[in-house]
Specification:
With 198 residues, the protein is an alpha+beta fold. It has 2 domains: 72 residues; 113 residues, Roll (Nucleotide Exchange Factor Grpe, Chain A, domain 2). Helices cover 58% and strands 17% of the residues. It contains 3 helices and 6 strands. β4 and β5 form a beta hairpin. The longest helix has 70 residues. It is rod-shaped, with a radius of gyration of 43 Å. The relative contact order is 0.08.
Length: 198
């Protein structure tokens, strides 16, 4: 082989090496841009995963609250059914008070029995967080009271409960039945509406 052929071969090898180097450099740029695309996609997937986890935690919390409320207020219908019984026992006790009866001993025994039953029943209701609303003399609260009528009264402040017709009840702080009440209003001025044109 001559020097000239060897030089041509070396130049060809150098040209090939230069082409390979350039191709590798271009491929490196593509890989770098491909890596940044993969990193963006990876970040996107991470964000989606975090959002999904947060949503699952919110759903879990909401369902726990719903279950807690269901347990807390599961007895509401039961309590509503028992309240008339409680009312009847109270009325029985009230009906024996202040009346003269021929056989006082029988009435006394009946009253004591009903009193004891009423007391037991009331304590049993309290164990299940059933509280009585008896707002005599308190300001009218539309959240807990149902006004049956408004009565003019000079003795009581306006918008004050002056009579409880039926007690109300709450279960765990939620009103099961509002108290039926009579509410005081300011008395009308004497003379009423007088026509001053004469």
């Amino acid at each position: 082989m001559s020097d000239e052929e060897t030089r041509k071969e070396e130049q060809a090898d150098e040209a090939e090496a230069a082409e390979e180097a350039q191709a590798q450099a271009e491929g490196g740029e593509e890989t770098a841009s491909g890596d940044s695309g993969l990193e963006q996609q990876l970040e996107s997937y991470k964000e989606e995963l975090l959002r999904a986890k947060a949503e699952m935690q919110n759903i879990r919390r909401r369902s726990e609250i719903d279950v807690e409320k269901a347990h807390k207020f599961a007895l509401e219908k039961f309590v509503k059914e028992l309240l008339p019984v409680l009312d009847s026992l109270e009325k029985a006790v009230e009906s024996t008070e202040g009346h003269e009866v021929h056989n006082e001993e029988v009435v006394t025994r009946i009253k004591e029995g009903v009193d004891m039953t009423l007391d037991m029943f009331t304590r049993a209701m309290e164990k299940f967080n059933v509280a009585q609303i008896s707002p005599m003399g308190e300001p009218f609260d539309p959240q807990q009271h149902e006004a049956m009528s408004m009565v003019p009264s000079a003795e009581a402040e306006p918008n004050t409960v002056i009579a409880v017709m039926q007690k109300g009840y709450t279960l765990n702080g939620r009103v099961v039945r509002p108290a039926m009440v009579m509410v005081a209003k300011a008395p009308e001025p004497e003379g009423g509406n007088v026509d001053e044109q004469a």
